[in-house]
Every structure is written in C-alpha cells, then in structure tokens.
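Please complete every field before forwarding. Incomplete forms are returned to the sender.

SECTION A: IDENTIFIERS
Entry label: holo-481
Bound molecule: potassium ion
Molecule representation: SMILES string

SECTION B: INPUTS
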Amino acid sequence: MFIYREVEIRKADETAAQNGLSGNALMETAGRSLFLRIKEILNKNSRILILSGRGNNGGDGIVLARYLNQWGYKVDLVFPFGEPKSDSASEHFRYYKSVGYSWSTSIGDGPYDVIIDALLGVGTRLPLNQSYQDLLKWCNQQHALKIAIDIPTGVLADRGEADIAFHADYTFSLHGFKPSTFLLPSNTYFGQAESIDIGLPQDAKWKIWSEKNVKRTMKKRGSNSHKGTFGTGLLVAGTDEMPGSAMLAGLGAMKIGIGKLVIATTPYAASIIATRLPEATYLHDGLNKLAVGTFPDGIRAMAIGPGLTDEKLIDQVLENVWEKEIPLVIDAGALGKREFAPRKAPIIITPHPGEFSRLTGLSVKEIEANRLEISSQFALQKNVIVVLKGANTVIAFPNGTGFINRTGNAALAKGGSGDTLTGMILGLICSESDITSAIANAVYLHGLCADELVKEQNERSIVAGDITNVLGRVMNRLITD
Ligand SMILES: NC(=O)C1=CN([C@@H]2O[C@H](COP(=O)(O)OP(=O)(O)OC[C@H]3O[C@@H](n4cnc5c(N)ncnc54)[C@H](OP(=O)(O)O)[C@@H]3O)[C@@H](O)[C@H]2O)[C@H](O)CC1
Ligand SMILES: [K+]
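SECTION C: PREDICTED COMPLEX
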C-alpha cells in the first residue's frame, strides 16, 4: 500500500505519457477501475449523482458515469461549475456525449441515494470559493452514501488542512493514497479509504506497513537458537517516582522476544519491577553509573528515557554512549532539545507530537497537519529515525523513505503506552537482524495489541500494562515458518 504526494503523481503521469500511456488512457483505466469497485457497494436501483469538476478529477467522474450508464444504473452526471476544460476530461466528455448519455449543469430534484464527488482532486487549492462551499454543505446534508474520488473535495493532497469538505463514507484513491488521508484534520473526511490500481508501476517512498509486511519479515525462531541469539538490551529508565515506566518498557522488550535485558534504574524502582519482571537483571543507580562511564558488557542495543527526569545526568549518559556502535532509542525524558551530533550507529527517537513540537519548534497543529513531511525532513537533516507517535504513527528514515502504521486505537492514548512501545522497539532491534522492519513491526504489533484488547473491553479501561498481555497471542497469529 503506497502513498504519493501530488508531485509524485504528476511525475508518474508524465513518465507514462512520455512513454506511450496517455493521460486519456490513464483516465479510462481510472474510471473503469472505479466502476468495478464502486458497483460492489451500489444497489442497482440507487439514484446516483456524480458531481464532476472541470479538471481531471471530473474526468474520472465522466468515465465512471459512462460505465454506470452502460450497465443500467440510474446516474445523473452534473457539472455544477461548467463543462470540463482539461484535455483528457474534454475528450472523455466528447466520447460520453457521442454514445448518447445525458448530463447537466444543474442538480436534479433528487433525492439521491448515492453522491459521488469528482469535483476536485490533487489539483485542489484552498480556500474554496463560496459556490464550492455551498455545494459541499448541501452534499453533506443529504442522506446519501457519499463516495469521493481520489480525495474528498475540500482537502489538499499533501497537507492536513481542510476547508468545508465532502464528508465521504468511502474514498477511492487512484494509484495510491495521498498523504492527507493520514493527516489532521483532513483524515476525518475520508471515511473508509482504499487505493485503486490504475496500472502504473508502484514506486513510492512512503508505504503503509501492513500485516503482509509483518508476516514477511518476522519468522519463527530456529530450534537451535539460544538467549545470546536474541541479544542483550540495556534499558535506562524509571525513577523512584516513576518505577512503572521502566517496568512497562521492560515488559515490552521481554515479551517481544529480547534475549536478555539489563534495566538501569534506581534500587527502589528495581525492587518493585523485579516482582513482575524477575527475568531482567538490574543495574542499581544505573543512571548515575552510566553517567560516570560504567557500561555493561555485551549490549546490542540501548533505550533511554521512560520515566527519567534528570536532564544533566541523561546528557552525560548520552555523551558517554554516543560513540558506542549500538542502536540507541531515545524517548520521553531523554528527548530534550539536542543537536544529534553525527553517530555511526542508528539513533531512533520516539516523540509524541508534543515532544516533537519541542524538538522542532513547530506547533502541534502544524505537525499534525504535515506529520509525514516534517518527520521526513527531520530524519534527513539530523540523520535519525523518527517514530512520531499518535494516530497513524509515522516512521521516517534518513534516506527519505518511511512507513505509516495503521494499527492502534484510542486505548493507546494513556500514560505508559509510549514506554511499552519503547521497550518493544528495543526488544525487536536486539532480536531481529533488520532494523527497518524491526522498528516498523514493533509499532505495528503495539497497535495491534490495542486492537485486540478493544475486542474484549472498552478502550477506556485498557491500561498500558494490558498491551503486553496479548502480545504473545497476536504474534502467534502473524508469525509462521
Ligand atoms: N495518476 C493518477 O493518479 C491519475 C489521476 N487522475 C485524476 O486527476 C486528478 C488531478 O487532476 P487535475 O486536473 O490536475 O486537478 P483537479 O481535477 O484536482 O482540479 C483542477 C481544477 O480545479 C480547479 N480548482 C482548484 N482549486 C480550486 C478552488 N479552490 N476553487 C475553484 N476551482 C479550483 C482548477 O481551476 P483553475 O482554473 O484555477 O486552474 C482546475 O481546473 C487526480 O486527483 C485524479 O482524480 C487522472 O484521471 C488519471 C491519472
Ligand atoms: K474528489
């Protein structure tokens, strides 16, 4: 499942056209593929209104209207803002008329059972003028099934800002998803978003990390493996006031399959955690010891931050471990504004939007409206891997590629769930060989556990400690030979 920005879509179209696959042909494929998918959710007796704009989004609507007419559906094709003006749409309109189907520039009496929005697509500029706004308000008031083509009119393709927008039940995006499908507030207008193949080769920098990816990259362990195979992780977390954060992260690491875990924490926190996590070993006064240069042997990866507050000590620890060639996960209390000096081994930061706002100096609103692009730029500039948490967690890599995770729900909006995720990431980067899929799988599984939990109990009652209780069960479903 691929995600494309407007410029990438235009480039793909241009390359296809230069090599013999014209815009007209793509529009035909788009309209026909839309017809084949949309007819699955239509009733043959439904009255269907297709609202077509003057650009190519409107052209897709024209081709769709032709197929619907051809197959006997009751469809009104309406151009509320005048006849098509783009080349491909105009050609398809000419053909549509030549086969004798009807069209209009004003909406009929209705009522309509289905409204299809083919007004604006990736060519949208905001704000919309008053006549668009009035039409969209009218659409949203109708008791009809609402289907948007490519993106709902009123949202942009690449950013999360929205005007008054078509409130779709379904959005069928052509070639791949557009970033606004996953941004705020735009994503509230998409309804169920699906991607429709139009025959162009898929070559996206951004992808949705899917169940298929998890199954492909996480395999059953060999019977001759031992704890050394799965590495030793160092978790620097927890204080007397916040022992739970170290426990949650520790459970995340151990229950996802780390070989051995050393938890650097306070003696008091260790005494509490050890009752629930006797499998871990403890470095008492860990933060102080690491700050003066002590470092346990044989560590394969390290995570620092959950439940920590002493910035000075954290800075000293980070300075000491910076040169060590092990992946470093930086979270929560360790996520203060820092420069991220060049480092040989990977740095993974796991901010929520508030923490990322402090790191970038941008507002939370700006981040939410543009979380893919901002994380990607930060990853590139600082040479770090960004795991920006929240609905549709973004995982951005320094090479410009990235993943969106779609598992998870509001049950995760609770203290401690981020600590659990940090532990799970530590656990997988220690125990799996490929760091890219290890991080994505940890994020996916963390969300999937929450999805599993809401099947049994209300999201309000779920606490972070429940996540790892179902981790084994969800992994059993996904991990095969
Ligand atoms: N490869 C693919 O995925 C394909 C996608 N297709 C479809 O094409 C559209 C993109 O088509 P494009 O013509 O570039 O753009 P739009 O249809 O979105 O709209 C352009 C017209 O909209 C007018 N516009 C834009 N913003 C406003 C506004 N705020 N108010 C009023 N009018 C607006 C603009 O008018 P101008 O006169 O200002 O230029 C344009 O007329 C894509 O989304 C897919 O649906 C192809 O069919 C197949 C390949
Ligand atoms: K649209």
